[in-house]
Amino acid sequence: MTPYDSTFQSAYFIKSAEKLSQCPLDQGVEVAFAGRSNAGKSTALNTLTNQKKLARTSKTPGRTQLINCFGLNLDDRRLIDLPGYGFAKVPIEMKKVWQAHMQDYLMNRRSLAGVVLVMDIRHPLKEFDEMMLDWAKANGMKVHVLLTKSDKLKRGPAKSTMLSIQRELKQQNIDGSVQTFSALNGDGVDDLRIKLAEWLVLDNQDEIPVSPNA
Ligand SMILES: Nc1nc2c(ncn2[C@@H]2O[C@H](COP(=O)(O)OP(=O)(O)OP(=O)(O)O)[C@@H](O)[C@H]2O)c(=O)[nH]1
């Protein structure tokens, strides 16, 4: 349990956007989930919000093709599910379009406070992940690496994967953190809520509109 559980449980679907211009008004604070296709982004969002169907999950990789936007019961606080990267069965031209839209979002979204980079703990730091880390470094963006499906590894190997990624972030001078996560056994759910609350609420207190009656 964390003090923020009900905030995340309040998550509701706002809209699916094909591109940045269709996203909700660019004000307040939002956190985006990015990752390779099938890494477990949608499942992580559903677990975080304790809702079975908030973000559609699928065993078919690449289902999350749009920028899916979710609101919370705090003014102008949002969670964003970005298109999964690298779905093999999609034509190359379509992939390029998605990538362009995603890049546009990442480069130009002013309310974006941090990116949760979702990786399957058994396949960390693939080309896309390295690209995202390079981008985060170049743009001073905060990154939280979520190593999903930790239930698939024993505790020792899971911990050592986490530590090696922590080292990599440090070596690359990236403003980032790492944790393990499992939708299956609940590993790291509280840690993720605390991290996101830090980005969405605690770091951005002055972004919260003050009620005239307060
Ligand atoms: N064992 C285990 N399986 C998981 C976990 N999280 C996700 N999965 C499985 O991994 C597969 C992909 O999960 P999704 O959440 O749909 O992945 P995604 O990253 O949203 O995929 P795209 O829609 O392709 O972007 C599904 O079969 C999930 O059930 C986890 O913590 N543990």
Automatic annotation (TrEMBL):
Mind telling me which Pfam families this protein's record contains?
Answer: MMR_HSR1
Domain (EngB-type G) spans 27-202
Q: Which keywords, in A-to-Z order, does the entry hold?
A: Cell cycle, Cell division, GTP-binding, Magnesium, Metal-binding, Nucleotide-binding, Septation
One GO biological process from the UniProt record? division septum assembly
| InterPro entries reported for this sequence | G_ENGB_dom, GTP-bd, GTP-bd_ribosome_bio_YsxC, P-loop_NTPase
Superkingdom field? Bacteria
Q: Identify one Gene Ontology CC term for this UniProt entry.
A: cytosol
Q: Record's PROSITE patterns?
A: G_ENGB
Q: Which cofactor does it need?
A: Mg(2+)
Question: Annotated Gene Ontology MF terms?
Answer: GTP binding; metal ion binding
Q: Belongs to which family?
A: Belongs to the TRAFAC class TrmE-Era-EngA-EngB-Septin-like GTPase superfamily. EngB GTPase family.
Described purpose of this protein according to its UniProt entry: Necessary for normal cell division and for the maintenance of normal septation.
Q: What is this protein called?
A: Probable GTP-binding protein EngB
What is the gene name? engB
